[in-house]
Amino acid sequence: METRYDLVIVGMGSGGMVAAALATKIGLRVAAVERDRVGGDCLWTGCVPSKALLAAAKVAHHLRESAELGLTTTVAVDRAEVWKRVRAVQADIAATDDDPDRYRAMGLEIVAGRASLRGPHTVHVELAEGGTRDLETRFVLLCTGSRPAVPSIPGLAEAGFLTSETLWDLEEPPARVAVVGGGPIGVEMAQACARLGIATILLQKGPRLLPRDDPALVATLTDVLRRDGVDVGLNVDVERVERVGADKVVRARVGDEVRTFAADEILVAAGRTPNVEGLDLDQVGIRTGPRGIEVDASMRTSVPSVYAAGDVAGRYLFTHSAATEGVRAVRNMFFPGRQRKEPTIPWATFTDPELAHAGFTVAEASQKFGAQKVRELRWELAHNDRARADGNTEGAIVMVLSGSRIVGAQILAPGAGDLIHELVLAIEQRCTVSDIANLVHIYPTLATSFGQLAAEVAFEKAAKYKWLTRLTRR
Questions:
Q1: Which of 49, 256, 422, 471 lies 20 to 30 A from 203 at CA?
Q2: Could you give the CA distance from residue 325 to residue 299 in angstroms, rounded to a whole number?
């Protein structure tokens, strides 16, 4: 019988890595099973490569637009070198922060192979080196993540396509690309490709891009994409894909019209599918649904000794939420009491400008608190002195209030993914708009607009009490 572990983690992506760091820190005996590479989707196919690509695209764009700042320059983009740098960034992280030896030094045993469950306390591993092992454990944490969803489009498989997993393997990126899907991945990659000189078509089935975000901010961002050269198609229902000579042709219905879109490559960005296959979850009674493994507020599955975190649990498909959930799962396994409170999970689409989101939208807040209690505050960047100085005035800051309490926020601005955290804290701490007004913001910064927006409300309130002012008469 294998020596019993306190915890076996299946999957060393974002959730598994953070959970392993905590578990070893508190003195547990921990093993992690990984079938591929430590780092998971974030490092190898998601956040890291996409942001490295966006960084190059942003520099290229701003160099082209530098005449607005009184500068003259020319831009030559070597796309093969851009892709080469993306892989170099990945390799640097893999050799430092995500190095397997770093985790082994913490006391983690890493087992290379494919895992499945043989019981509530047994993880069976088909070892990469051959043979098998059964790991006996008090608890199991499943962090197997997700993979790109591939829609059932006739001809797509035959024509061939790219996903966020295969895009980074290219040695020579295509000259023309059609992106299918208008969510965060599709929007980010469409802008990056267009700014790097790739003729880019973005096809979205619905009436607008990024349907979970503020419609007005999304409309502004859509205009930015179009000016960047992205051919944005909305209400596009893809019917089939064909090979016509060297072209890959997407045939789609747009309203009553059938249109064709030709490209060298098709990038499918149509959502994610949880990685539950091969785990034999049904053999031990773990319930799953369309979004993945079903968990309670403690991250526990229907089997009390088995927990799940990250994309495979189907809650929020973000790196930072996977890490948060991994920590919550370990805390609930080994410490007294249960951590059940749901934290506010913000997110950002890392276009330029970035679009960040936290808490409720106006529609969601109205449904929860009642429309009469909900108010939206909006401050355009055109009224922010730093945005004017930088030449980046497209965008706005939105706060959603229930009474005077901040319950939601969205920002379209440069660095919005960083800016949003002040408002995330405000939502978590149940702050009022007066609390933001009383906070002194550095001038000139984009965050000054938080204070300006809150001050408008504070001044309105002060005006109601003007009868209290002491007037000095000469």
A1: 49
A2: 7
